[in-house]
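As described in the Methods, two query proteins were run sequentially through the folding procedure within a single session, without resetting any intermediate state between them. The first query and its resulting structure tokens are shown here.
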Amino acid sequence: MKKIKYLIAISAMIFATSCGDKYLDTENLYGKSLETYYSTPTDIDEAMAGVYNAIYTANVHSNEAMAANLMSDMMLGGGGPDDITAKWADNFEDPAEDTYKDMWSQSYNGIARANAIIEKTAEADFSKYFGSPEEAQKFKDQSIGEALFMRAFFYFRLAKFFGGVPMIVAIDDPKDVGRSTYTETFAQIASDLKLAIETLPEDSFSSIPTSSYGHANKWIAQAYLGRVFLFYTGYMTNMEGQATSTLPLVDGGALTGADVAAYLDDCISRSGYALASDFRNLWPYSYVNQSNGATVLPWAETEGLSWVGQDGHSPTFGTGNFESMFVQRYSFGDWGWSNGNIYTNRFCLFAGMRDNSLVPFGQGWGWCTVNPKLWNSWDIDDPRREGSIIEVGNADQGTGGYAGDKGDHETGFFNKKYTAIQHPENGGETKGMFVQLYGWGNADMQLMHAQDFIFMRFADVLLMHSEITETATGLNAVRDRAGLDAVSYSLNAIKEERLHEFAFEGLRWFDLVRWGDVETAFDYTLNVRNSGVDATYKANYRSEIKGLVPIPETEIRLANGVYDQNPGW
């Protein structure tokens, strides 16, 4: 219930700074004054909620997870005949010109709000609100460090999708600036993360209260520094053809692989995060069997699965989740709110089976159907195969009653990690899993998906460490959890492991880009069904776009020639 209240609160807090109709402009929506605000801990907490609010986007195709999955080689567009935006993203098209506008605008909203916290919190004196100077300083350090991390998070989101972008890192910075270079953009991201790591308290995960779950901490910043390092050095080397082994900083320095590996070592040894005992227990389908036994999901019952939950180490429901590090928190929607469906996990809705309301898998819109190549090439003894993919027409998986020919790009496979989950409530009406758990009054199938989206897991820290150090320890820890034999380190082993460990988690596309594999990843055709008609599918990736999406044309026009469109768009 704390999670529900938290998300409802931030949904109302789009305050202080928000992009208006002018180019990268900001306006004060609620009369909050920069001169008087940010002076109490309550002010800072409210302002920080506004920063996190900017992760959410109104248009679902502008959602980071949705966009990244649609562009990857392991998911197809899907949906119905009228779901053209899914097919545009899947096929690297943008006839609407503003497909990713919400991602752009919301990222700059978050950056502006983070800038205000960074500057104003540094000037504030919170001592009278705490029992000791040490407590006041710790609050200040957490707030500044968290805002630095979030600014890096938003700039990284922009850079991954759009490339070099305008840099605005202070309240009074001019807004009519051109795009920074790719290297300049990543230098700011890396510098923010490094300073966040140096500023944030060193509390281990188990000592952080559940009420703070979903907020950034030192260990999350370390993990993201690893991700940024690998993406930047990979992109520059493989997409730009400039061999690069270091991550630049704004002061002219740089971080080496050894530097970043040391941060990851620290995260591994001291953070308190750990792998879940069973990969499948990370996902909500592992909880369903606890309510209704084998009649709901025989496979989960037989496998003895038990959901770890999604509220940290001491969740309201579940056994305790020590693996999920940074997540996008979701709750329920309400059509009476402005953009009332953006705080429910629409990836679960849109990627659910189209027009099939089964138990335990509810119905959705059928986007992001799964490439059968993944299922067919995956080791049948790897439990992550059935733990990640729904195979239709399989009674043991709860899909024996599946009715096909409801949508496009049907392959017979859907993702199992993020999908609609439902079951009978006390033997009666079938309702969404989270509606039942939290006692939510609205059972609308479009508004019931309170599953958090995981941006960073501890498993990724282990695999990134192996990739940077070219050692097999982290790689084999993840394989051991899946019951697989140890292997020697190789980049190919890392590629295969990341594919299987993080399928449908929004990472595959960016891995393909940074490895330089995106050019060959789509060299295949598939037989699919389009609304009951046999068809052939092929995605048309174009090398000239260099793994980037188009900057919204609205933003380019408002910029009055300050910068140009990305190549190929």
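Immediately afterward, the second query was submitted; its sequence and tokens are:
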Amino acid sequence: MKFFKKILSFVFSRAFLIVLGFILEIILFIAIVNYFSDQFVWVFALHYVLSIITTIFIINKDLLPEYKISWLLPVFFIPVYGCIFFFLFSENRIMRKVRKSMNAVSIRLKESQTSHEEILESLDPSTTAYHQSRYLTEYGHSPIYENSVTTFYPTGEDYFKDLVEELKKAERFIFLEFFIIERGYMWDTILEILRDKVKKGVDVRIIYDDFGCLTKLPRNYEKKLSSYGIKVHVFNPILLFVMPKHNNRDHRKIVVIDGYVGFTGGINLADEYINKVKRFGTWKDSAVRLTGEAVYSLTTMFLSLWSHYEESTEPFESFLPSALSVPVQHQGYVQPFNDSPLDSEAVCETVYLNAINAAKKYVYITTPYLILSRELENALCNVAKAGIDVRIITPHIPDKKIVFMVTRSYYKRLIHAGVQIYEYTPGFIHAKNLVIDDEFAVVGTINMDFRSMYLHFECGVWMYESPAVKDIYDDFINTLEVSRETTKEDIDNIPFFKGMFISVMQLFAPFM
């Protein structure tokens, strides 16, 4: 009986119905094209004309070479279908109304920020720090801050403990923005605090991504949260009809409490992130806490997206802390930044490229996925060839097996160039950290893959001369001790057919 109920529950689940709808749309589309092709010879000939036109268009379009190759294959081998899918999904095509709203969001975010030019000019103009900060100020519209404290969390357990304590202290407002929320110990604990805070008059707002929560939360969960007095919006809802806008997801993880304390990093609100459940061995993740003036950037990131759903004239400045409860002294420089797929500026990738290319001693990276653009791959190879110590830690136990195989397909060129790649043997590493030369670090939501760099809304924190930089370095060294290095022998002894399969999958890496 229980098994039968599970089957019924699965069949009528929203996720199953959406996938079924997608499959039926594809079948209907193929049937229509085939019908007209059989009835009219000119339609059949049109297939090839359309393929030629699309091929010329792709070659001349301003796309990454990897995307061009990935799209040319279906256009060439499955004419018409490949062409139509290209024009539907090759760009961040969203409805005009939504684009207009999101453009207004971007403008409001820019207007809400002060450049802090005096802090920027206090940096030596000949240094990497100055140039990176200048880029983030001018093109990421993200100001640099001095009076802020950064606290690094090397595990989800450490993060969760402090998060709960800070949520309990909230007096004015709590903002939460997450890719994944799943019912369980972690979320239930947080929700209980949020419900209590609402009763005490605290303004509680939540944004969660519909795709990330599709199999995690029940249908219409936002209505349940609203019944508690929590203000909530679901980002980019998944519809039964296939739409290009479904490609763009809100991958950010942001918490803001009273404008004074903020958190971001790789950790979502689900039990595996704090190892309350074991999905892929030990789950290794990380986050950073900001205290002080820099939290305002996280506040404006959240509010600018919130204003996409609710027209409001309330000034962002009204969410500044009334006063810093404890004066924050200078502890290095902090620059929270965000990246949108709706403009032509790949902020996350450029931040990584700037940092890697400027390295003088070492580049240490942790990432759950290693699916690189040629530009990032070249940057890592080139600095390694120049004698820079480049090390990358990826998972040993994957959460997505095909994606993991594609991740491993990038090992060969990197290792032969001198990059050292390690796999975290206790389980799955989801931390997204970059630390360079004991000076710079980035902690955020950014995976080293095409989706994070080009398709998702992301955020991170760039730190310079902050005490947290050493903590991130120490965590990397500690993680190395439980990780196994991948050798040239490992990558040169892959079975032939497995190697062929991986090579084919790598052709479609930009879609993963």
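The first helix runs from residue 2 to 11. We note this only descriptively and draw no conclusion about the first query from it.
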